[in-house]
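Why does residue order matter? Because the sequence determines the fold. Keep that principle in mind as you read this record.
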Amino acid sequence: MITVEGLHRHFGGFRAVDDASIEIQTGSITGLIGPNGAGKSTLFNVIAGVLPPTAGRVTMAGEDITGLPPHELFHKGLLRTFQIAHEFSSMTVRENLMMVPGGQSGESLINTWFRRGAIAAEERELARKADEVLAFLTIDHLANEKAGNLSGGQKKLLELGRTMMVDAKIVFLDEVGAGVNRTLLNTIGDAIVRLNQERGYTFCLIEHDMDFIARLCDPVIVMAEGKVLAQGNAKEIMQNEAVIEAYLGTGLKNKIKEEANG
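Structure:
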C-alpha cells in the first residue's frame, strides 16, 4: 500500500531521515521501532504530509503522494495519530467523533439558514455512527463525558475512534502505548487487531513496548540514526545483533543467551 523510496528529511546539517526505504503491505500491522532520535516520528510526518521531504518519494497504491498536505491525504484514507492526543477537551467524547467527517452541511452558513432539517438529520446519523464506534472500542459509557476528563489511554482510544468515522485505508499510530496502563493498552491492542481483521485496516505503528509489538506486528522495521537498520518478524528482530546493540540493549542480549543455554 505504502512504498517509501530513498527518503531524506534534513534539518540544516542534521539528517533526521537519511535515505530510508520501506514498504507497508496492504492488510498488515507493521511495527516501527528504534531508539529515541532514530527518525521514526519524522518519517511518519513526511509520509503523512506534515513535513515535506528533502528528497525521496512516497507512493500509496502506486500513486505518488510525495509532499501532499495532510487534508488531501485524509481524503485518500491516510490518517495519522500523535504521541500526545489532540482532543477537543471541552466537547464530549461523542461530539469529538462527530467533528471528524469533512464536508458537513452545517459548515455552510447558507445551509444553517435554509436547510436546518437536513443538518439535523445528518447530525443524528453522525451521532449514531459515533455511538457505534464507541461501542466497538468498549468506551460507550464515556459518550457524554468531556474529552478533557479522559485518562491518557482513553484519549488514545478516542483517537483510534476518529479513524473509524471516515473511510480509513491506512493509519499511522505514533506511540499508542505511551502513558497507557497495561489494561487499556490491551484494549487498544484488541481494537487494532479487530480493525485489521474485521474491517481491513492497514496499520503502521511506532511503539517502544516490545511485548505489544511482538503481539501485534509483522513485519517489524527498525530505524537507527535516520536509516533503516533491519526488518523481519519480532523474533528475528529481537535476535538481531545489530538491533540489540543499537536499541534493545545488553540486558536483552544476556536474557536471550540464558534462554538459549537454559
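The first strand starts at residue 2 and ends at 11.
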